[in-house]
Design goal:
Length: 79
């Protein structure tokens, strides 16, 4: 098995792809302010996973175009 280090952009894309596939939604929908239940659940999971990767509420918030407190809420409340 080859050990390769992914760039931050590749890791972000991989996380978004995985979450979108798991929830049956498009990656682009996760990044939009859509309030449908399945999109909100996918977005919350993506926020949590991206925060776990980069450890920055502000950086994660910039990816989604939201305030850092929105990311904090989802990170703390996603089961």
């Amino acid at each position: 098995m080859e050990n390769s280090i992914l760039s931050p952009a590749e890791t972000k894309r991989n996380i978004l792809e995985d979450v979108a596939q798991r929830h049956g939604v498009r990656e682009s929908d996760i990044l939009k302010p859509d309030r449908r239940k399945e999109i909100v659940a996918a977005r919350a999971e993506a926020m949590r996973r991206l925060y776990e990767y980069n450890k920055s509420y502000s950086e994660t918030a910039r990816i989604f175009g939201v305030d850092h407190t929105t990311v904090m809420y989802h990170v703390r409340n996603v089961i």
